[in-house]
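Hi C.,

You asked whether I'd gotten around to modeling the 386-residue construct. I have! Everything is below, sequence then structure, no commentary in between.
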Amino acid sequence: MRIRLENGRIVTPQGVLDSADVTVVNETIATLTPLSGGKADRIIDLDGGWLLPGFIDTQVNGGGGVLFNDQVDVATIAAIGVAHARFGTTAFLPTLISDTPDQIAAALAAVDAAIEQGVPGVVGIHVEGPFINEVKRGIHEARRIRRLDSDTLALLIAPRRGRVMLTLAPELCDESDIRTLVEHGVIVSAGHTNATYNEAQRAIAAGLTGFTHLFNAMSPLHHRKPGAVGAAFDSDAYCGMIVDDAHLHPAVVRLAVRAKGIDRLMLVTDAMPSVGTDDTEFMLQGKRIMVRDGVCLFEDGTLAGTHLDMASALRNTIAETGLEVAEAAVMASATPANFLSLETHGELAPGKRADWVWLDDKLQPLGTWIGGERLTDTEEFARAAQ
């Protein structure tokens, strides 16, 4: 299929084009060139908007009224994909927050099944806890927190169809276990951690490559005790960042961009079931969470994930940092693709998947394509997921 893109700004690794011809073969971009004349099978007028690589979100707890922890099955994963595709997310990791070993096993199996059945967008799973530090648990339930044991380690390192990302507190985990996880392809990230700088650096030396929602629920940067944040800054590790005007002050976002750069910072949503709905509350492991002014809060004021989508995260980042659209887009696509070693994702270029999002000139989402096919509404996306 040859698609002609006109009258817009198309972000490619070589620069921003105002028009292009794209040939899609087997869900992959075969060619992408400036307009060359000739016949096109489909013409898309971008109406002065932006065409960006599809967003990749490594932390998605829920959306569309459903929470992954509540029902770990293919239908739930597809529903989450429906909700987030409306906002430009074309690849995501359903995220299970601290839960039982049986629920972890069920979640891993559900993601395998979703990938096998071709649910659009799902590329793996993020297991966030329960191997975390209670003093930095946030909304995670204290009774579920525990140490990583040999049985769960064996479960996590078993062969899977997609990526497996694990968030843990490195100070409560043996470095040999981190090495074992990494040797078997698990992507290890530090989060909900009270690690010292040295403890975090030892974990990095053992193979840890990420920091989950940088700054939030981790030991802070102090001039004599750099903590986990200091270790993140003083390394090549990738860092997820929640830019929702609640989790981070705009000055902190700017400082992080200066310290780490766009090639090591990833925009994440940490999204909850309310995303893609008008719901003002939901239940999280028996707790009633309220959505107030776009922020998800427990009754005691604890932040409980977010009501954030990736398009909003992109807009917020640009507003708070002054980055160009093409620069911020790297944090939403290419950087998470690199973190997850998704070689065929993250850019509009030959050899990459034909996943992209169309935004208007205010960066509001107008359309999402996965594998070269436009998913125009929830009903059509749901049919594609069957």
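If it helps when you're writing up: The chain is about 30% helix and 25% strand.

Thanks,
B.
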